[in-house]
Write a structure and sequence with these properties.
Elements lengths: L2 E6 L12 H4 L16 E5 L11 E2 L5 E2 L1 H10 L4 E9 L4 E9 L2 E2 L3 E2 L4 E3 L8 E4 L7 E4 H9 L5 E9 L9
Parallel strand pairs: 2-5, 7-10, 9-12
Antiparallel strand pairs: 1-11, 1-12, 3-4, 5-6, 8-9, 10-11
């Protein structure tokens, strides 16, 4: 099965940046085990004198998805918990609702330069988070990626990832 790194399209140069995010929240808390640490509804400010690029996926500070992407995720992983975020730009009187999916994390080696991932711990998950200190790495299976693309999302990028399966050793009978 093919897997893809779902991320924000870097060609959009003015994405929302949540003010004071790192003083109020920690990225590592956005997993199902820590759901009690994050309020169900959040209002955050992204003030900018420019119009913001509200794409269907944001991943610079935190992995956030639009309603469109959330609905696709629900088709494949019904157990994902979502926390709502209202991103406000008071300078331009604009806002957008996003959802932070609390996706299970696998502890696997991910090489961003070669787009490779160890195939351990994935199981049959169609959507999972790879433990990575420096950035958000959300991986989706081919069927999820196709469903997303059928809905014409704005501002997403899908990069194919090579999966290295652990070697199986034949044991003597």
């Amino acid at each position: 099965m093919d897997y893809f790194w779902l991320r924000q399209d870097r060609r959009y140069v003015n994405p929302p940046v949540i003010e004071g995010f790192y003083t109020r929240m920690r990225r590592k808390d956005f997993v199902p085990e820590n759901r009690y640490k994050i309020p169900d509804r959040n209002v955050v400010y992204c003030d900018s004198d420019k119009n913001l690029d509200f794409t269907d996926v944001l991943d610079r500070q935190l992995f956030l998805v639009s309603e469109k992407v959330k609905n696709v995720f629900k088709l494949y992983e019904k157990s994902i918990i979502y926390k709502c975020f209202c991103l406000l730009n008071n300078q331009k009187n604009e806002y957008m609702l996003y959802y932070a999916p609390l996706i299970s994390e696998i502890d696997s080696f991910f090489n961003e330069n070669e787009l490779t991932l160890k195939g351990e711990g994935m199981g049959s998950s169609s959507i999972f988070r790879v433990k990575c200190e420096s950035r958000e790495v959300i991986v989706v299976r081919l069927d999820v990626a196709e469903s997303l693309l059928r809905r014409n999302p704005e501002g997403i990028e899908l990069r194919k990832i090579r999966i290295h399966s652990p070697l199986t050793v034949n044991k003597p009978l």
